[in-house]
Design goal:
This protein is α+β, with helices and mostly antiparallel strands. It is built from 20 helices and 11 strands.
């Protein structure tokens, strides 16, 4: 079937899109306006690897582009659309898709838009990071290009190396815009004076009055006052010799990380919800030609299939398939209003733990597997808790090891600590050395990371002295 690149097919897509939007509103979908744009495949590839249509340039994005190109060439990855939540939402469709595929994608995007407007996590982070990510990202990219002209490609790239290496290391429990640490130690407040005259008489007997803790007042304020997991924020504000333009790059990467966190944390819910709605909208769109509908449904089946290829079982969860199956199960058993409540209140952690039942696990043939040293793969278990945690483990802490800035020494050296007990995720020591090398260039003092090795033994990784 022809691609959506001719004037006639574009006009047909506009007509179908308008009718699908009318149907979506009629069925109760509530979303910010969506701006659709048809783009060539190479531009879509750039959006996918950069994360945004216009973003700061860095060599790591080129590596991702090559990786994506190879995967697409091998038939393992095909990008149908990219949608950016906001007010308005921005959606990019590939003009190389067929008309039925882009009709399905239009309905899919409306499901995403409904989810993004109504989910609490999307609403919270959009309020902090703003609803105009494309314009904001373009402005940041322009500032970085200006920095390159003023300070040189090598210096700017060194800062980007460090900032992008720490891209997921934010504290999603803290605000995007937050104050610096207090500069004075907390003062102990005097106990409230008793109002009862009888007790007031005996409140300050000789020898009973406590002496002021002058030693604690004289202590230097500890930085950070508690383990700080927002490494991008901490380095931007407390690196001993960081210049303003360097701080701006760190804070730009951090702000974009806040914007993308809900997409990461709600991927299964979001893709499943969009898939449920594109299937329903197509099913109820009686204005679509029959042959177009059949082709679109074929594309739907390819998107939500549980298999990697033909009948070979996939060892990785397809979020479209899992999310779609879960929403169908929820709506069938509890109704659409219950599903809408879940959309508002949950992220993938609550969604999987609360609504992926044993019955559905068995139906979808989900299991936890172990890879042996000889290359064989063995099914280890398929109990509910094990399957839940196997699905969610890669999502913990934005997919990164849980590492905190623990202490800023008097000489300006920085100590980082890996909280391996809470995240259960090891650290790749070779990668850790590279990242510490990047951080050391912007911190300009020694940086150490305290972690554990494969056998649980204490390990210390140190940056090169700058």
């Amino acid at each position: 079937m022809c691609t959506t690149s001719s004037a006639e097919s574009i006009e047909q897509l506009k007509q179908y899109s308008t009718q699908i939007e009318e149907l979506a509103r009629k069925l109760g979908l509530d979303y910010y306006p969506v701006d659709f744009e048809l783009v060539p495949n190479n531009f879509m590839m750039e959006i996918a690897v950069y994360g945004l249509p216009v973003r700061m340039h860095h060599w790591s994005f080129g590596v991702r582009y090559i990786h994506q190109l190879i995967r697409q060439g091998m038939g393992h990855s095909r990008i149908f659309e990219v949608m950016f939540p906001g007010d308005p939402c921005r959606a990019y469709l590939v003009n190389g898709n067929t008309l039925p595929e882009n009709t399905l994608v239009t309905a899919h995007v409306l499901g995403h838009a409904d989810f993004a407007k109504n989910n609490h996590l999307f609403a919270q982070f959009m309020e902090m990071a703003g609803g105009h990510i494309l314009e904001q990202a373009a402005a940041r990219a322009h500032r970085i290009e200006t920095a390159i002209q003023e300070h040189g490609q090598e210096r700017v790239e060194a800062v980007l190396d460090a900032a992008l290496a720490l891209e997921p290391h934010i504290d999603i429990n803290r605000e995007l815009h937050r104050s610096l640490y207090p500069t004075q130690p907390a003062q102990k407040t005097e106990p409230e004076q008793p109002r009862d005259p009888f007790h007031q008489r005996y409140h300050a007997l000789p020898g009973e009055k406590s002496m002021p803790d002058t030693q604690s007042l004289a202590k230097r304020v500890s930085i950070p006052p508690q383990p700080e997991y927002d490494l991008l924020w901490f380095i931007a504000h407390y690196a001993p010799e960081m210049e303003d333009w360097e701080r701006d790059i760190f804070l730009a990467v951090r702000e974009e990380s806040y914007y993308f966190y809900p997409v990461f944390a709600c991927q299964i819910m979001n893709e499943g919800w969009a898939s449920y709605w594109h299937a329903r909208l197509l099913r109820e769109a009686d204005f679509l030609p029959h042959d177009l509908y059949l082709s679109a449904i074929k594309a739907h089946s390819d998107v939500v299939r549980p298999y990697a290829a033909e009948r070979q079982l996939a060892l990785a969860v397809n979020p479209y398939h899992l999310g779609f199956s879960m929403w169908e199960d929820i709506i069938e058993k509890q109704g659409l209003e219950a599903a809408r409540r879940i959309v508002r209140e949950e992220d993938d952690f609550g969604f999987i733990r609360n609504y992926l039942s044993r019955e559905l696990i068995e139906k979808l043939e989900l299991f936890v597997y172990e890879a042996r040293d000889d290359g064989d793969i063995r099914i280890a278990k398929n109990d509910v808790h094990a399957v839940h945690e196997a699905i969610l483990a890669p999502k913990f802490n934005y997919g990164a090891p849980r590492i905190a800035a623990n202490h800023l020494h008097v000489d300006g050296s920085l100590q980082l600590v890996h909280d391996n007990q809470s995240d259960g995720r090891g650290v790749d020591l070779f990668r850790a050395e590279r990242v510490l090398e990047y951080i050391g260039k912007v911190w300009r003092r020694p940086v150490t990371l305290h972690t554990v090795g494969e056998r649980g033994e204490a390990r210390v990784v140190t940056s090169k002295r700058m």
